[in-house]
Amino acid sequence: MGELICGVLWGWPTLALILSAGAYFSYETCFFQVRRAGRWLKAALCCRKEARGGVSQFQALTAALAGSIGTGNIVGVAAAIMAGGPGALFWMWASSLLGMMTVFMENYLCARFKPVRGRGTGALRYIEKAGKYGGALALVYAAGCCLSSLGMGNMVQMHAFRAAWEDLGGPGWAAALLEGAALFFVARGGLGFAVKITEKLVPAMTILFMGASLFVLWVFRENLPAALSSIWESAFSLRAGAGGTAGMVLAMQAGISRGVFTNEAGLGSSAFAYEEVEGRAPAELGYMGIFQVFLDTLVMCTVTGLCILCCPAPGLSGAQLTFYPFEQAMGIWGRWAVSLCTVLFAFATSVAWCCYGRSGLFYLTRGRGRTAFALAFAGAAVAGCVLPLETLFRFGDACNGLMALPNICALFLLSKKGLSWLGQEEKG
Prior knowledge:
By secondary structure, the chain is mostly helical. The chain contains 19 helices and no strands.
């Protein structure tokens, strides 16, 4: 039954709907994400660190990145390559290119619409304005957001956190208790408290991971041309793979599904991070969404995949496939570096999703239940450390579907208005 529900809510129809939204917005804007590449890069790299209100633009960006840069950047890339071969990376790039515009429109519409009586926040701002079905879509989305924060945003991350913690030599029970306590206080403090963590944590963990990855690629630089060639050849291979399925199809399935999973395009989650940013144009907050997908998938997932392909590990799978090239290049220090990055990635993602789920709950309860949610989130962190990973993924995927379906429907319903506003801004 769990597999059936997960297949309905987070199967190929949902993924195709997410991709179609990205393709539609890309086409209607003449690939805005490519034409305005210089503009969104400048906006992200030169974003303001001082706050004009509750949260600064830089703090919001780090919170959004914390929500998307998670264990999927380490374990998810390895799983995609194992399932679809090197070509999965190409299709991950393709889905991310389209996903840039999906996240752009999510942030853009969030900034254009104001909440009704202060109730709707983040993506709920525009979902509840999506015609006569907007209210119903908002209720489904809020419930999905609350549940997804407990599943994919918490328990899945904490499972990886515990494994990495033990790899560093720490006891698993300590990881569960430590994370449970930390996330309880984050859930109580909300976004204002969370961004004080992410603005310090996200730059540090990104620099650490990128530095270690680039060192691995330098050590195995002679294998880099062959790795890049294998990505292109495998992406369009018609050679039969598992079950007689063409390699190209397997690569597409693995790359697209993992690409959507890691960059969160179509979930509307990053819009919650920018809800308290003031004094910035809607398009500028949309630029942040494009940069989020760019850094998360096109940069970090790419270097992870290239490290794996430049130093293949026979007989290994999952996280061990990612650990292997770092160990070969840096010894035990490489393994510890990846383990530390996994710990930091998992914690950062949980911090961000704690705020997202809190907003979803408050929409349903009209601001009540703060302590109850904090206790539930802390308990979910402990449960994630002990429950089977397969069960956690099924639950998390199903909850992601409850967010994606109403969000994409709202984006299509509001597309004409949103594109009209964007066109007017570009002319101005």
